[in-house]
Amino acid sequence: MSHPRILLLLILSVPTAALADNEAAWPSFHGPRRDNMAIETGLLQTWPEAGPELLWKASGIGHGYSSISISGGRIFTAGMIDRQTYVTALDMTGKELWQSLNGQSWQASEQQPWAVPYSGSRGTPTVDGETVYHLSEMGRLTAFDALTGQERWHVDMLKTFDAERPKYGLSESVLIHGDALFCCPGGAGGYVVALEKKTGRLLWANTKIKDPVGYCSPIIARIDDVEQVISMSAERVFSFDPKDGRILWDYPFGNERGNSATDVIVSDGRIYASTGYGGGSVLLQPKRQANGDFSVTMVWKSELLDNHHGGVLLLNDRLYGAGHESRGWFCLDFSTGRKQWESPGKGCLTYADSRLYCLDERGTMTLVEATDDKWKEAGSFRLPRGGEGLYWAHPVICGGRLYVRHSDQLLAYDIRKD
C-alpha cells in the first residue's frame, strides 16, 4: 500500500563517485552480525570543522526512532505518519521507492503525559533476500516484498499470543535465522515465538516466561557448542533453543522501571548485559554441565555503563557506550568491568575503521578514536533537526556513508577518504 503523502527529497550533491556501492549491506538492526560494527575501511580519520560532506537528506519517512537497514541497493526504515506506522523504501540517492502501511502507531496515553514526545516508530526493518520484515509498536508483524512494498503476510502478535502492549510499545527488531523468524510478543499464548519466515505460520511458542517484555532485540550465538538465541525480558537475561523454544538458561537482571532496551553482547562464551535506571551492567558465564543443562555464573557487576537505549559495542576486549544514571560515555574492560575512561554525555553509537561515531541525544555527532586510554575526539558537528524529539535513532555506516536519522528526516554523509 502506498501512502499519498509525497516524499520531500533534497539532493544536495550526489556525484557519481560518492554513490554508495549497491552491494553494501546492513540488513538488520546493528548490521549483518548484530554487533553494530562495520567492517569497511578507507574512511576519514578526522573531520573538517563543518563535518563530512552531506550528500542528501530525505524527509517524509515519518516521525520515530527506528534506525535503517540496507540491502540490494535499497534503504528501509519505519515512521509514524498521521498516527499510522509506515515502512519506507528509498534508493541510494534518497528517492522514495515505496511506502507501505503497517498498522496503528504507538501513542502515549493520557496516563503517560511525560511520554508524549516519545511517540513514533521503534523497531528497524529486517531484510532477508527479497523480503522486508517489520514489527510495529502495536504488534503488527508484516512481511513486505522488498521491491514493491506489497504485503506478503502479517500476524497480529498481541491478539494471536494474548499479549498486552508494553508501556512504550513493542520495540523489537525481529531476528531471521534459517527459515525461522524469532520475536518476543510477551503473551500468555507465547512469550517467545518462532514463525516460518515465508508464510508467518507458527513453528513453536514458549509460554514458560511470565515477565513483562524488554525493549531489546535478540541475537544468536553458539556457547559450549550449543546454538542459542539470547535476549532480555524486563527481569532477566534468557537463552532459548532456536529449534523448539526450550529455555536453556536464564539469569535475573533488570531495573526498577522494568525497561531493558540494550541488546546483549556475546564474546568467547560470555554474555554482557546492560540496563538503565541504575540497573548497571553485568558479565555472565553460562556453562554446560555433564547432563546437558546450563549453569550461569556472574563474572562481574558494575554500576557503570548502565545503558539506557543507545547501545553498547565490543572492540578488542573493550566495551564502549553511554550510561544512563551514571551519565557519561564509558570504556570498560570486558573481562573485568574495570573502567578505562569516561567522558561527559549520553547517546547512541556505531563503529567503523578504528573510530567510534557517537551521537549525542541533543544532536552532536562526534568522531572518537577507539582507544582504551582516553576519549580522543577527531571531529564533531551539529546535525540539523528533522522534527520533534531527541536524537535516539542509532546511526549506520555502510558503503562509505554515515546515515543519521532524526524524526522525519534521514541524512547521508560521505565519510570516505578521497
Explain this structure to me?
The chain has one helix spanning 157-160; strands spanning 9-11, 37-38, 53-59, 69-71, 74-81, 84-91, 96-104, 126-128, 131-135, 140-145, 151-156, 175-177, 180-183, 192-196, 202-206, 219-223, 226-232, 236-240, 247-252, 265-267, 270-275, 280-288, 294-302, 312-315, 318-323, 328-333, 339-343, 347-352, 355-360, 364-369, 376-382, 396-398, 401-406, 409-414. It is mainly beta and 418 residues long. It has one domain: Methylamine Dehydrogenase, Chain H. The strands form eight sheets. The protein has a five-stranded antiparallel β-sheet with strand order 1-3-34-33-32, with no helix packed on it. The chain has a five-stranded mixed β-sheet with strand order 2-28-29-30-31, with no helix packed on it. The longest helix has 4 residues, at 157-160. The N and C termini lie far apart (41 Å).
